Amino acid sequence: MFQSIFIKEWLKIKSFLLFSILTSIIILGYFAFKLNFEFSTLEPESMMWYRFVQLEQKPYFDLIFFYLIFGCLFALFQFLPELIQKRVKVTIHLPLNLLQIVFSHIFIGLVFIIFYYSFISLSILAICAHYYPEEIVQIIFKDTLAFSLISIISYILVSALILEQNKKVLFLKALVSVLFLFVFIKKQFFINDFFILFTILIFSPFILLDSFYSVKQQRLKIFYKVGFFIISFILLSSSFLNYKENYQKEFYKYYIFYSDILGDFVYQKNFGEHRFEYGIKNDRTFLQKEYESYLPFVYWRDLDIQKKLPVTINERVFTKDEIKDSKLGFDYNYKLLKKQETELYPLFNPQTNEGMIKFPEEFFGIFKDGAKIYDFDNDHLKEDSKELNKKLQEIDFSYPVKNIWGKTTNIKPFDLGYLIIDNKNRLFNLKKENNNIQIKEIEYPKNIDIIYINIAENKQQNLSGYAIDKNSNFYLLTWDFEFIKLDLKEFDYKKMRLKFIADPVNYLIRYDDQKNYYAVIYSKNDYKKIKEINFKD
After folding, report:
1. Which chain positions lie within coiled-coil regions (predicted)?
2. Which residues share a beta bridge with 507?
3. Which sign does the torsion angle of CA 390, 393, 397, 402 carry?
């Protein structure tokens, strides 16, 4: 009986399968041509690695839709003729129980689909292996596996939608299918994603079985209903988190600044639709022009155009150049805590006799079994990697690395390299200049557990960035990486945004969770807190 079902299914989908293989060859050929063109026209070629790892621009990502289209069309070619020609009732009356019938159809479909997806995925891997290091190729393998699982589940769900007879149930199943695609059409996949995917994959045949039962005006019982509810709840929750993280527009209810003219904080309250209120908390409000007049360090460009610079504040004269050169800003968002899929970083190599930092040919990574250096032309640079590992061994570096932070673009006036936390929580600075790799240990408060570091090289060469520890303590980093703790009440790195702003006199830090807005002003001379304020939405 299984052989009869196999022959029946083969006759239905053989033309479509042949057409799909021919189409895939054309698409893969175009993908190979386009990838080769991008690497050939970009200098250095390692910029493509940077786009992949740091910017999440994966050249094969759009192929997920090709996977999905094939899975959905396969379901249409397999089950739509059964429905149109009213053969479903004949099928369910074959001398097999309904469970065997459904799983026979799914098994046959999966044989062809897995064969096809294996061909596509292996081709993508073979093409990309010519251009990317093995650590990136491993990510490509993971992604193509995820694409295949998503498309297989989509095939089963579309099959269930085709056969479903009850319109209300059809709507629920269609909603679950849409939520599933909304959650899993994305660029990064982690272990928990695969756990959910395999869970849905195991359960999805029962959704199809329930649709088969609907032809007989029957339904699966309590086990299926509970499982369907759990799957729906997981997808609904994941959809909400996905929307909040990737699609929800950020909104600032308050913009808070410190006015050295008034010696107090002033605010701009945003009501939406370009409606604002300006004022001093619990004191008074004023018009926009008056508000701007109290903030010459913020609106200095307007003052320059109006020929009102230099400006005198508290008997001190501030020129245009002094204000301009003092400007500095750092930003933090809890989304920055998301780690890269692989720990590969551009290894900058500034030269003292050159005015601009070039984007490097070389990338480096520190993995469980040691460090590696790559470049596009020579792939794994074994001698350079050996030299780097020797230097790491000399400083007693402990594997695996916990975190690596640094600015991965060459759009910066200087290169301070990377700060690296090893397995024993020791902090190291790694950088390369004048063709020489340097590694040195950085002393920092040993009672803290660093969660995040931002390095932002700047022309002032006074501050290099900031650090945040596990207890949400905030530290400014001097140019030589000294940690200076600043007191930020109620700051929570897990859910808050933060902005650091420097002007000629003070440091301003604003942070909020979109409900509570805080601002603190510090003296630039001694980092002492001058004043703080908070607003509640």
Report:
1. none
2. 502, 522
3. positive
Give the whole-angstrom CA distance, residue 419 versus residue 441. 9
Please give the span between the terminal C-alpha atoms of the chain, in angstroms, as a whole number: 68
Nearest to 438 by CA among 417, 409, 456, 454: 417
Say what the pTM is: 0.89
**481 vs 483: CA distance, rounded Å:** 6
- Per-residue buried b or exposed e for 263-295, using 16+ beta carbons within 10 Å of the residue's own CB: eebbbbbeeeeeeeebbbeeeeeeeeeebbbbb
Question: Three-state DSSP class for 498?
Answer: strand
Q: Is the dihedral of CA 489, 493, 499, 501 positive or negative?
A: positive
CA–CA separation, 63 vs 93, rounded Å? 39
Helices 63-84 and 134-163: crossing angle in degrees, nearest 10, is: 20
Task: Classify 289 as helix, strand or coil.
Answer: helix
Residue 379: which region, alpha, beta or left (left: phi > 0; alpha: psi -120 to 50)?
A: left
Compute how many other C-beta atoms are within 10 angstroms of the C-beta atom of residue 72: 18
What tens-digit pLDDT sequence spans the chain (537 residues)?
A: 567 767 767 777 889 999 999 999 999 999 999 999 999 999 999 999 999 999 999 999 999 999 999 999 999 998 887 766 666 655 655 566 666 777 777 888 899 999 999 999 999 999 999 999 999 999 999 999 999 999 999 999 999 999 888 999 999 999 999 999 999 999 999 999 999 999 999 999 999 888 888 877 778 888 899 999 999 999 999 999 899 888 888 889 999 999 999 999 999 999 988 899 999 999 999 999 999 999 999 999 999 999 999 999 998 999 999 999 999 999 999 999 998 999 999 999 999 988 899 999 999 999 998 999 999 988 899 999 999 999 999 999 999 999 999 999 999 999 999 999 999 999 999 999 999 999 999 999 988 999 999 999 999 999 999 999 999 999 999 999 999 999 999 999 999 999 999 999 999 999 999 999 999 999 999 999 999 999 997
Helix 167-184 vs helix 222-246: angle between axes, to the nearest 10 degrees?
40
Give the C-alpha separation, 320 to 123, whole Å: 59
**Which of 54, 25, 19, 29 is CA-nearest to residue 411?**
54
Count of Cβ atoms closer than 10 Å to residue 107 Cβ? 14
Which strand (E) or helix (H) includes residue 44?
Answer: none
Question: What is the C-alpha R_g of the chain?
Answer: 30
Residue 361 and residue 46 in contact, taking contact as beta carbons nearer than 8 Å: yes
Distances (CA, A) of 520 to 469, 493, 506, 529: 19, 16, 10, 7
The pair of three-digit structure tokens given for residue 236, joined into one six-digit string? 């609904």
Three-state DSSP state, 532 = strand
Tokens encoding 286: 């004023």
